[in-house]
Amino acid sequence: MSTELKTEIYEEVERRRNFAIISHPDAGKTTLTEKLLLYGGAIHEAGSVKARRAQRKATSDWMAMEQQRGISITSTVLQFEYENCQINLLDTPGHQDFSEDTYRTLSAADNAVMLIDVAKGLEPQTRKLFEVCKMRGIPIFTFVNKLDRPGREPLELLDEIEQELNLQTYAVNWPIGMGDRFKGVLDRQQQKIHLFERSAHGSKEAANTIVDLGDAKIEELLEQDLYYQLKNDLELLDGVGPELDIDLVHQGKMTPVFFGSAMTNFGVELFLNNFLQYALKPGSHESSLGEVPPTYPDFSGFVFKLQANMDPKHRDRVAFIRVCTGRFEKDMTVSHARTGKTVRLSRPQKLFAQERESLDEAYPGDVIGLNNPGVFAIGDTIYTGKKIEYEGIPYFSPELFAILRNPNPSKFKQFQKGITELREEGAVQIMYSVDESKRDPVLAAVGQLQFEVVQYRLENEYGVETLLEPLPYSVARWVEGGWEALEKVGRLFNTTTMKDSMGRPVLLFRNEWNTTQLQQDHPELKLTAIAPVSGQTSTS
Ligand code: G4P
């Protein structure tokens, strides 16, 4: 590789930041995304993301389902420039459309932004997504949102994060007042106070006044009680709180915390500036060749998500690939690690919301969309040069289970084909009973929508109408050591054993309580909520 290309890749990696937002519905993810794009100059007036959404609803027929339910099934990647940095925001589906894709997207993210509603604190979906980030050890930045509304005490929220998530916190900025009296934030490192002015709907960047903490004017600008409250809080934070430790942040053990209000733009710019400074740049990845740095000369990447029918005019599939090393170029011919085939990547797409622009090149940390002529499965590696294979993507613990029946025997073949393809695509997990006489597949999903998508697509793409019979389980655990380990413990109570599509044992439980009970009765049995990736690609 030429020195120029090496330098080019290095420079591009240095200026890239990639992240996903993890949050519970309604915490303000759409609003924050919109405001980040506003500051990034990618849109000129906030409201556009929502407007795009509405527009899309009007034009798209995949999904008729989207229209009916007023939700967005497709997740996208938003790319924008800010302060000479190239930012990639991996948008995770998060509402009623919560699915395994939400988890998988996190395997392509280098950083996560945990968005919390100040009035609610940690919520279930945030906790689940946090667990995936923790498993990957990626940096987590916390944005506490909606300070323009009454909420919980900031110190109490920090405590909740520390206790429940076992994550150290460092408040990078600190709120002054809350609700109607939210005046702004103190930037603790610069020791400057950012006082904000409310704009009508926060559609433009917020105007703010920056004053030194030591400035005598402060006492005039702030009401007395807010001023003293700030002084007290700071004494406490400086006195007992830890210092900001960037290494701990990068290891995912400490979270920098920001307070603000996405809706009114309070604190968004400050957050963005700090995020760019502290976030991890695209780094090394574990592979069959050991740890490979992003500046490794050859191109490589892995598939983290497959999406069918994004564009109703072309009933195609798009494979989303996270670039890990080298430079991606349009029309490149790559090798496909699992099958050994060569694939020409002729129609790469850059992704901005639903629009598809064609793309000429991409670098580590970027995501590209490739039309998938059926060769790609979740976790596949593509590469040029020496063969390389990335670890793959695990199966995440499903929470909803249902038997899928095909009432029409003449449609058996289509049914089987559809199930296999949808499983390979990662639309849903498939499990089977260990009882050979029960051959109907069990669908296992993390969100209800996955069932609906599977039934919809089986009917529309494979011509098979199916029946769904819900099962009363809500927890799945894989067994470390497989069947051998399971046989050793003998008969188990209050659980049902199934086989996943790799033939590995999975235990299903009705509730967490039964799971805990079994763990207590059989401490020698090691159960995991996330299935190991080993051999994941070998059966597809
Ligand atoms: P989500 O994507 O995480 O689900 O949340 P979204 O941004 O859609 O925000 C959920 C609701 O919270 C929206 O109100 C939004 O305006 C509001 N919100 C977001 N950030 C803030 C904030 O900083 N302060 C306040 N007070 N509200 C905030 P909505 O009434 O559901 O929708 P809309 O009518 O405002 O569009």
List the helices and strands and how they pair.
Layout: H1 3-14, E1 16-23, H2 29-39, H3 48-59, H4 64-69, E2 77-82, E3 85-90, H5 100-106, E4 111-117, H6 124-136, E5 140-145, H7 154-165, E6 168-171, E7 173-176, E8 184-187, E9 192-196, E10 208-212, H8 217-221, H9 224-240, H10 246-250, E11 254-259, H11 268-278, E12 285-287, E13 290-292, E14 300-308, E15 317-325, E16 328-329, E17 332-336, E18 342-345, E19 349-352, E20 355-358, E21 361-362, E22 367-371, E23 381-383, E24 395-396, E25 400-405, H12 412-425, E26 429-433, E27 442-445, H13 448-462, E28 467-471, E29 475-479, H14 482-489, E30 496-500, E31 505-509, H15 512-521, E32 527-528, E33 530-531
Bound molecules: guanosine-5',3'-tetraphosphate.
Guanosine-5',3'-tetraphosphate binds at residues 23, 25-31, 145-146, 148-149, 261-263.
Average pLDDT, to the nearest integer? Answer: 85
What gross morphology would you assign?
Answer: globular
Give the strand line-up of the largest sheet: 28-25-27-26-30-31-29-32
Distinct bound molecules? guanosine-5',3'-tetraphosphate
Main beta sheet strand tally, sense and closure: 8 strands, antiparallel
Return residue spans where pLDDT drops below 50 for at least 5 consecutive residues.
44-48, 51-75, 352-356, 535-540
Question: Could you give the count of β-strands?
Answer: 33
Given the helix and strand composition, which structural class is it? alpha+beta
Rg measurement, Å: 24 Å
- Strand content is 25-35%
Count of helix runs: 15
* Helical proportion, percent range: 25-40%
- Could you give the distance between the termini? 34 Å
